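[09:14] KT: can someone run the structure on this one? pasting the chain below
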Amino acid sequence: MKVKIKDIANACGVSAGTVDRALNNRLGISEETKKKILKVAEEMNYQPDYTARGLVMGKTNTIGVVLFDLYNQSFAQLLNAIEVKARKLGYFVYITLSDKNKKDEIDCIEHLVNRKVDGIILLTVNKGEQFESYLSTLTIPIITILNFVSDKWEFIGVRERQAMREATEYIVRQNHYQTFIYISPPLTYLGQTNIYTQEERLAGFLEGLKNNKITTKPYIVKNRDYLNELEEIIFSHEKAAIICSTDLYALEVMNFLKKQGVRIPEDVGVMGFDDIEMLKYVSPRLTTVKYPINELGTKAIESIINRIEHREFIPTPLLDYEMIKGDSI
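[09:31] RB: done, structure tokens below
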């Protein structure tokens, strides 16, 4: 049976109000009585009712997070950064996963609102006026990350376009490549869901080619079955560079090429994006872009808590990145 404040009060021979002052570190109680109450509370394994406290105080010290999934190692790392920073600042995190489904995402948001979270960090697949109108009906702070919604909503992101442009220009400067292939299956949903991050990376790739006067039309692979599509592309004697919008696609491509007897980078160059942890086990070392995923999670928590506690967001410029020059280009 759950221990209540009145149980501690009876055990200590004091009023419930005195116990409440001790547990919440408020004035009006002697240090000796406070120590006694806290000791008894610990012995009785008292657990505060945060929901009830939240109803009284209007604050639950919880933050909701809506992500796509945790299959992508970057999302798992992001969530870890969010949770660690939130705990340091006195908050707990509720996690929900939308599986990139627009309706499920709304259900996730509703679930968190009903749990009385103080704020929400949202990686959304929704966009448009109807979605923004819905968000406007909510009475709690919301921060969007990675996928931009509009200027009406606080956004914390990375210089996606600039990062992919620099990565592409780096490849072009090697002077080895005549054919350029860009792989990004999420582009299948272009115009249907919010894929802002992927759109920015594609734009950066195209700008990188244009800035270096590459006039040969690149292959843009949007198919989920991208390996089969890649197999149909004839490389002939032209050396190709394959740029992937995430490291996971790049690793699949490298594995595929190795099975085909294609040498990396002698025959085909491969580049990823994210610099996920598992790359240290891969040979040749993948050339990629290091993504500030831990900083992203930390900034998101700092901003949402500042909004909760001080009614204003911390302005956050787009975060920077770093080129990791491996052996695959």
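[09:33] KT: thanks! The chain has three domains: 5-48, 60-156+293-318, 160-290.
[09:34] RB: yep, looked fine to me
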